[in-house]
Design brief:
Length: 594
């Protein structure tokens, strides 16, 4: 009788109906895009994969399932709507398993400037106390803010990258009060994922590739890599590239070999991408003096000489690495590919501000232009699970900020043309931060017609002060209907946009912007300012049709003069004052508001 009972139980397990089957890993998300995602999990015995899902927690009409049994489950949910919250239930052995954290948001449409939040974890699979401290700090700091994606920077399991180490060193520590149920994982491998083994670097037969499902066929945009080791994806208005800096392709090619498939694909992918933001992440850093030394370690030297140059050539905005068990963050850097001692801040930075953007000395944000997209911030964030010693020359000369005393993780947010990064340490405090802005400090001329409203907007997300008295002076956008020059700046005077509103056919002579008129709009008197002028000047006042209402003279004293308008019977509208100053004629628009 006991033999029959044992046989019956084994049969049930094979068929996937074991009463003792349970989830031992996950669920976690892979390849989340605007219209699809994978729900992944692992069970203790083979069974069918089935997921129920929908936009209402109490109504899950969608069903996705597989017709074969397995212990590793990768269930595709497709036909979804972009930028939408979905709830899901994992169905295993006809037992539904759910949780308050079983939900996700699809990605916004490609190109959307909607705010995104990402988390980068470097060397996070140690199982050490620092890893748990960092996990708790992330939960405390992040609260209920949604994290769209988690970038893994390699060495995701120690020491040999075995299945058991992924379980005890990554999935088990991060399943408590963490994000894996609802934030998609986008991994990259490290040397410990390859067991530091040359043979495995050649064969790539490691658990990492069994665990993670890689978008190697451009499922989420970019150029298909056709390799599970490296890939790219689009998310909103950002393009992400994950590289393999340890594995060897075709028996001979490393990441930095220009004839290798990874290098060739990387350049092709960078060339085709037109996203606002380019983020590249992989394990081995090109610039570090932490627990590793980029001056003499051969793989780091080659990445510094070959890959950093390639990434900067195509305007990559941020490079994030692990490997060194510390935190190091550069200035907005360019053109330095040699030994640390040759770094020259004057030559090798586009901007040597701290970019903390907090009112401290020299802290204005980094500014880039998409037409001349020069400068890259290099971040080493390899202490999410363990700390390490540092080199004698630490910190590296190229670094704006470095820290090796506490473990931590990197958050960054992208919204429109603004990127903000925050380095959170295990004490739940932000120890470093920086901001990059693109296409700001604009100077525009905009043609309008008399009394036609037009909306002008500051070119950044943040705070705003317009240079005239308005109830909307703190708004990003204002609507006006009269010509003038308008300037908006931020509270720290790091940013300023200038808008010159003109009427078609009327030009300011000599493009002289030194003449100022105020107040604007005008009621009875018009005050003028022109440098330090001390002389009598002839002027005319005319409307947009060229009709002259006044031709007279006024005297400037220390650059100031005034003109009375009360006897002119001017109606509301746009007018121009034109002055003859020495040998040139200068015009400026003003508005009458009756």
């Amino acid at each position: 009788m006991k033999k029959w009972t044992l046989y019956f139980i084994l049969a049930l397990r094979v068929l996937g109906y074991s009463q003792t089957n349970n989830i031992v890993r996950g669920p976690f998300l892979q390849q989340t895009g605007p219209v699809s995602t994978y729900i992944c999990w692992k069970t203790s015995a083979p069974c069918y994969s089935k997921v129920l899902y929908g936009t209402s927690k109490s109504n899950l009409p969608g069903i996705s399932y597989t017709s074969n049994t397995d212990t590793n489950h990768y269930t595709l949910l497709s036909g979804l709507s972009p930028d939408t919250k979905y709830y899901y239930i994992v169905n295993e052995d006809n037992v539904q398993m759910t949780s308050d954290t079983f939900y996700f948001y699809t990605a916004p449409p490609v190109g959307s400037g909607k705010k995104l939040r990402f988390l980068a974890l470097g060397d996070c699979g140690s199982g050490y106390v620092q890893q748990y401290n960092v996990r708790n700090a992330i939960s405390f700091y992040n609260q209920d803010q949604y994290v769209n994606g988690i970038l893994l920077l390699g060495d995701n399991a120690y020491n040999g990258g075995f299945q058991s180490e992924y379980q005890t060193g990554f999935f088990d520590p991060f399943k408590t009060n963490f994000l894996l149920n609802y934030s998609c994982i986008y991994p990259s491998p490290g040397n410990h994922d390859y067991t530091n083994d040359y043979t495995l670097a050649l064969s790539h037969q490691i658990p990492y590739y069994d665990i993670f499902k890689i978008p190697q066929n451009a499922e989420l945009g970019g150029v298909p890599s056709n390799h599970k080791e490296f890939y790219s994806f689009n998310y909103g208005n950002a393009h992400f590239i994950s590289l393999d800096s340890y594995g060897i392709e075709q028996g001979m090619y490393h990441l930095w070999d220009s004839l290798g498939p990874q290098y060739e694909w990387l350049e092709q992918d960078l060339v085709q991408d037109k996203s606002m933001w380019k983020i590249v992440y992989f394990h081995h850093p090109p610039f570090t003096m932490g627990s590793h030394n980029s001056d003499w370690e051969s793989d780091l030297v080659m990445i510094r000489k070959k890959i950093a140059l390639l990434l900067e050539k195509y305007g990559v905005d941020m490079v994030i690495n692990g490997h060194s068990h510390n935190y190091e963050r550069s200035w907005l850097q360019k053109g330095h590919y040699e030994l640390e001692g040759t770094f020259n801040k004057t030559i090798h930075t586009v901007d040597s501000s701290t970019a903390r953007y907090d009112g401290t000395s020299n802290s204005c944000p980094y500014k880039k232009d998409t037409l001349n997209n020069k400068g890259t911030v290099y971040v080493v964030a390899g202490e999410s699970g363990k700390l390490g010693a540092v080199q004698s020359s630490y910190p590296h000369n190229s670094k704006c900020f470095s820290d090796s005393y506490k473990a931590g993780a990197l958050f960054f947010e992208i919204e429109g043309n603004r990127l903000d990064a925050f380095y959170l340490e295990e004490d739940s405090l932000i120890h470093d931060k920086f901001t990059i802005l693109k296409n700001v400090n604009r100077n525009q001329s905009i043609e309008i017609y008399s009394n036609q409203p037009v909306t002008i907007s500051a070119s950044w997300n943040g705070d705003y002060t317009w240079d005239f008295n308005s109830s909307h002076s703190k708004s990003q956008s204002i609507t006006i209907s009269f010509t003038n020059q308008y300037i908006v700046h931020d509270s720290l005077n790091c940013l300023a946009d200038t808008f010159n509103l003109v009427i078609p056919g009327i030009r300011e002579h000599n493009k002289d912007n030194h003449l100022k008129v105020y107040p604007n709009p005008v009621k009875e008197r018009l005050f003028l300012n022109y440098l330090n002028l001390n002389q009598e000047s002839h002027f005319t006042i005319q409307d947009v049709s060229g009709r002259i209402f006044l031709s007279s003279k006024t005297r400037f004293t220390n650059g100031n003069a005034e003109v009375g308008l009360s006897n002119l019977s001017l109606v509301s509208g746009t007018y121009f004052i034109t002055l003859k100053i020495s040998e040139k004629t200068v015009s400026k628009a003003f508005f009458i508001d009756r």
